[in-house]
Structures are given as C-alpha cells and as structure tokens.
Amino acid sequence: MSEALSRRRLLLALAATCAWRAAAAGEPGAAAGAASAKRLDPRDPAALALGYVVDATRVNPAREPGYAPGHRCENCLQLQGRAGETYRPCGAFGGQLVSVSGWCRAWTPEM
C-alpha cells in the first residue's frame, strides 16, 4: 500500500510541477485560469476524497496518519500562485483555490 501511495504522490507532484511551469512560462491561458479559479468547497467530492480542511490545526492525527504538525498547504509542493495570498491554486484540485492554512492527503513537501 505504501508503494501505491508513493506513486500517487509522485504523480500529483509531477502534475503540480507541470502546471507551475506552464504558469511560470506564461503559456496562453495560464494566468486567465488562475484568475477565474474558485475556492474549493470542503464538501466537494474531491475535497472529501482527499480529506481537505481549510484549517490544518483542525486535522485529527488519529484519523489522518499522514498529517504531522506544521504540514499546511502553504508548504506543499502542490500549491501554486504567488506567496502572500490567503487562497492560492492547487494542482491536486485542478487549480481550484485552497487556503494556505489548509491541508489534505495530497500534501507533498516542497523540494
């Protein structure tokens, strides 16, 4: 099972990196997509599937063994956009905006 989880994290990290590079390169539509993105609803099926919460301090470590104090969207490889914004696009959720204080199971440490 840990092998599947590792593969999943690798694929999510790869997707996030590709999206970040596309935005950084200024490919047509990259900025427009970020500007029109909406905030991820924690009740969204994708958010529920990955255990997304808006405030990482509310994560129950007993229910989420992959969580550790200090893990937040703000220090996740999946997070895109500019530093200093409260909500930024996330590669794990198709560019929808997530709280920088949030967390989900797709959390991957920044490299």
Would you give an account of this structure?
This protein is mostly helical and 111 residues long. It has one domain (2-99): High-Potential Iron-Sulfur Protein, Chain A (Irregular). Helices cover 32% and strands 5% of the residues. The chain has three helices and two strands; from the N terminus they run αααββ. It has a two-stranded antiparallel ribbon. It is globular, with a radius of gyration of 13 Å.
Q: Give the CATH superfamily.
A: High potential iron-sulphur protein
The total count of strands amounts to 2
Largest sheet: 2 strands, antiparallel
Low-confidence residue ranges? 24-32
User: Total number of helical segments?
Assistant: 3
Order of helices and strands: HHHEE
Q: What's the mean pLDDT score? A: 82
Instruction: Report how far apart the termini are.
Output: 24 Å
- The CATH topology turns out to be High-Potential Iron-Sulfur Protein, Chain A
| General shape | globular
* Widest beta sheet: strand line-up: 1-2
In the CATH hierarchy, what is the architecture at level 2? Irregular
**Integer-rounded radius of gyration:** 13 Å
CATH class: Few Secondary Structures
Class from helix and strand fractions: mainly alpha
Helix content: 25-40%
Strand coverage percent: 5-15%
